[in-house]
């Protein structure tokens, strides 16, 4: 798309074109005879083309394209459970907390045209990052984020409300909450169902991922020792949240299951399109100046050839 940065400068074209038409360049003078038809046509066209090219260059002619990373197709609010139960190891090698952070970083890195907000929650939600396309900053936050169980608990409803607030002012055509948790709500005043209804009102979809298996013991490290414990889960509520908002619910028994869930979300949301995408301009002034220089060079060579020569008699008589 072509655009002008200073369109008011186009007004200068009218008087400059009038001057260019009234003062053609006398190509091939002085010489034994008058210039040919092509030279006369070229001499009249060059001043006009120079005027147009230079005025367009001064007007800031630009080629505008959609700006990458500024107009998200999808805005995501990622809600990451930070309760102590996330230290459980479902595969015996990597705990849920480490796996969640690692796979989230991969998920975000694969979506360069979207924005993300990161919300950590346990008994209370905390926004770690507002909506941003600064992937390096998000990656740094997730990589260095510790699990602090001093404020333990699982407030899913409050976390959902925080994620919805992060997306409420977003202009993106698709707004999505991704909820990663391994437990059931046991803290907070807002129920997950109430938060889901608020998401529906604002056109926000919620995808839920339940980490760990319902009804099965997991290995937990406590004071340097490992114990098999069972954490209360609520897959039915997570499924209800997703279905109410038009999203989907996934089960992740281990890190590979979590990875499959995130890949499924990636596939479901990758075709969403932005609204009123902003653009960035590539200035064309230098190319217009190169074009102008190419037009002027033959004239400069002609002037150099004429230097010191006496104009023909017919031209002197015309000037008098």
General description of the model:
It is built from 10 helices and 11 strands. It has 320 residues and is an alpha/beta fold. It folds into 2 domains: 2-65 and 279-319, no CATH class; 74-269, Rossmann fold. The strands form 3 sheets. A 6-stranded mixed sheet has the order 5-4-3-6-7-10, sandwiched between helices. A 3-stranded antiparallel sheet has the order 1-2-11. The protein has a two-stranded antiparallel sheet with strand order 8-9. Helix 2 runs antiparallel to helix 9 (285-306), helix 5 packs parallel to helix 6 (192-201) and helix 6 (192-201) runs parallel beside helix 7. The radius of gyration is 34 Å and the shape is elongated. The protein starts with a strand and ends with a helix. The model has no long low-confidence stretch (mean pLDDT 81).
């Amino acid at each position: 798309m072509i655009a002008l940065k200073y369109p008011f400068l186009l007004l200068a074209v009218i008087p400059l074109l009038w001057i260019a038409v009234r003062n053609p360049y006398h190509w091939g003078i002085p010489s034994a005879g008058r210039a040919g038809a092509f030279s006369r046509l070229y001499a009249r066209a060059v001043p006009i083309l120079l005027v147009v090219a230079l005025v367009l260059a001064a007007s800031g002619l630009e080629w505008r394209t959609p700006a990458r990373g500024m107009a998200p197709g999808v805005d995501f609010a990622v809600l990451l459970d930070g309760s102590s139960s996330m230290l459980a190891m479902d595969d015996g090698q990597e705990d849920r907390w480490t796996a969640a952070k690692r796979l989230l970083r991969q998920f975000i890195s694969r979506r360069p045209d979207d924005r993300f907000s990161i919300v950590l929650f346990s008994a209370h939600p905390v926004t770690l990052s507002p909506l941003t396309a600064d992937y390096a900053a998000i990656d740094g936050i997730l990589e260095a984020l510790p699990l602090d169980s001093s404020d333990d608990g699982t407030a899913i409803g409050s976390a959902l409300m925080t994620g919805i607030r992060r997306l409420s002012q977003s202009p993106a055509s698709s707004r999505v909450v991704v909820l990663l948790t391994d437990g059931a709500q046991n803290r907070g005043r807002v129920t997950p169902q109430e938060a889901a209804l608020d998401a529906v009102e604002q056109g926000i979809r919620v995808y839920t991922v339940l980490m760990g298996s319902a009804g099965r013991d997991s290995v937990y490290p406590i004071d340097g020792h490992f114990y098999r414990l069972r954490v209360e889960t609520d897959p039915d509520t997570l499924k209800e949240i997703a279905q109410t908002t038009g999203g989907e619910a996934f089960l992740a028994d281990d890190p590979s299951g979590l990875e499959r869930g995130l890949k499924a979300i990636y596939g479901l949301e990758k075709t969403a399109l932005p609204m009123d995408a902003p653009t960035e301009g590539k200035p064309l002034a230098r190319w217009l100046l190169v074009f102008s220089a190419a037009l002027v060079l033959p004239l400069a060579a002609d002037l150099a050839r004429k230097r010191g020569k006496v104009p023909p008699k017919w031209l002197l008589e015309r000037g008098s």
